[in-house]
Amino acid sequence: KVNGDRLWDSLMEMAKIGATAKGGVCRLALTDLDREARDLFIDWCRQAGCTIKIDKMGNIFARRAGKDDSLAPVITGSHIDSQPTGGKFDGIYGVLSGLEVIRSLNDLKYETNRPIEVAVWTNEEGSRFAPAMVASGVFAGVFDLEYGLSRADPSGKTMGEELARIGYAGPEEVGKREVHAFFEAHIEQGPILENEKKTIGIVQGAQGQRWFEVVLTGQEAHAGPTPMKVRKDALVGAAHVVTAVNKIGHSNQPFACATVGMITNSPNSRNTIPGSVFFTVDLRHPEDAVLSKMAAEVKAAAEEACQQHGLSMDFKEIWYSPPVKFDANCVAAVKKGAEELGFDAMPIISGAGHDACYLSRVAPTAMVFIPCEDGISHNEIENATKGDCAAGCDVLLRAIVERANA
Amino acid sequence: KVNGDRLWDSLMEMAKIGATAKGGVCRLALTDLDREARDLFIDWCRQAGCTIKIDKMGNIFARRAGKDDSLAPVITGSHIDSQPTGGKFDGIYGVLSGLEVIRSLNDLKYETNRPIEVAVWTNEEGSRFAPAMVASGVFAGVFDLEYGLSRADPSGKTMGEELARIGYAGPEEVGKREVHAFFEAHIEQGPILENEKKTIGIVQGAQGQRWFEVVLTGQEAHAGPTPMKVRKDALVGAAHVVTAVNKIGHSNQPFACATVGMITNSPNSRNTIPGSVFFTVDLRHPEDAVLSKMAAEVKAAAEEACQQHGLSMDFKEIWYSPPVKFDANCVAAVKKGAEELGFDAMPIISGAGHDACYLSRVAPTAMVFIPCEDGISHNEIENATKGDCAAGCDVLLRAIVERANA
Ligand SMILES: NC(=O)NCCC(=O)O
Ligand SMILES: NC(=O)NCCC(=O)O
To answer: B92 phi and psi, to 5 degrees?
Structure first.
């Protein structure tokens, strides 16, 4: 069994880096705060006897040697970056659970056959730099390195520049090595486990996602003397699409989610009719066919907005992450761990994307979910209990050890 | 007759300060560019023999002495600040027309009975600092000085701080002196004169305006695992209101205008359900009763959005500028000038607010409009012809001289 108090203390210590007024964390990818948190993690890993490697995407691997250190490792981990108004469990819980597994194995002087590595994947959130899971995507060969390093934030700074700036542009090749298995522990970020009163979610896979960037262009004009009937108001067009995206989410139930998370209006002046609006669309569904249908519906709504309001548009799909099914053996290892420990557990499909989604393309993969309060994540009030955190970490320990010895 | 070439050259010279790629101007109130343009104007006025006074709101008065300099002056003028994507005529045309009147009187060695002053009113646009026409409002006693100086831009900088920073916090008391008459020349900023093929608009008054600031608050949550039915999406609520504002504009024809010009979404992250949205509403109508009805309709739409989407709201009216009727004698002076010069002219109601609206509370006031291309303003492509600029200035000259000698 892991040390739940130690895991909790590490979570709370880490949560100080980027702490926000409402009890959350703002630790955007590749900011100084991200660096500070990475430094602390590496410090803790070195104290636990690990060796550290960093690759060209800034992914960190903290390694505990195996009996046969030439064998492919079992890797676990998640991410350190957060949303602008993020919580203190999303991502970092999976990273520190990995560390706690190593600390616990050290306490027990337990040697696994294969090496175990704790990974920190760069920019999982996709908030500062889109898309999400970009560095685990490069690791898995889904994106090439150049694509990964050239992702830019809204101010134009690239991941490559920012990795160099914070000193995390490592020397290692990205990916291109065998991974025996990958496990990721994470808070659920939704309400299902809590509603079903379960401690452990045995994650079977993840729903698919499609991300879009849309620019609607009309014509700036004076809000006072410009008659309603001659206006080309880009924001009125964008509002039409925001409303439609929401309806498309509701009309593709069960499971569909559809969100406009980001919108930037130009020139954004009180008495000027908006001339152009940029916004993003995030669509999710576990079935690829429904996801595609939703995408077509959004596009049709944007075309309708253009026709009704005299606008032109640039409509781009910038990311497609297909539905994922995890490895049967790894899922079984998670299930077995939960059963042996006597936790109430249930199978679950992840609503969010995770680095595990991309890892599953190059290694047998599974995930462990624990509940979060009211199902709330990507919010400063995100919360989880010490007991659930320890429970998830216990299951992770068993699944890792089972695979590392198999 | 004024010198139309000289007026045009001055307009083009001034348009270099803050020039944008698409041929417009970005010269936000109290920025370094505003200072540069003010400095140039003062330079030109001194060369034309004027004395300069600057008041505590940064309003500039360039004075040409009258035969009896103890008499109250006739003032003309407008503003130097622009929209973020503004044109090279809005405001500055009225300022430089005033200067051209003085230059022409100098050329003719013509002495008026009363002194003539060219005024530059600070922050007319209301874009960087809301509301519009704030410094002419303080001059007219509509706002007190403290209110004027404490207006803040989105980054929190106040007009008082920024006036001090650019060296335009002058020593003079604001207002509190007699003004014999006020005239303002301006581009129409709408399509009426062009559609009616008229050179001169004899402005009878201006429609009323009401400005609002609205914050809708929901709950941030993850765009992936958060079911549609439990969401409190502030942007979906805002989209409802944006759509409603546009409909309210259309349903209160003739004359009504209704615009959401500014919107800021938080946390503005692609995969986070928006937790709060700030936006502005600009309502206009020449009849006060209709304007009030429109305001009530907007409020009802915002309340509906809150109910439908589980949001709370902060709904504030931040500015009310009632419909204005200009002084019969001053309007007659403009009409007479246009008639004597043989221009096609028509009476018109201003769709925009102008410093003249506030001046009309403390002095007999009127305005001269000239057409602008396609009725487009608050846009970098804003345009007017050299001939129309000269025509408006000629009318201004006659109206000013008539009042300054009366
Ligand atoms: N776990 C998580 O918040 N991932 C971010 C990517 C996504 O939006 O699904
Ligand atoms: N003339 C002008 O653009 N004024 C700004 C105030 C308004 O929006 O009416």
So the answer is: -60, -30
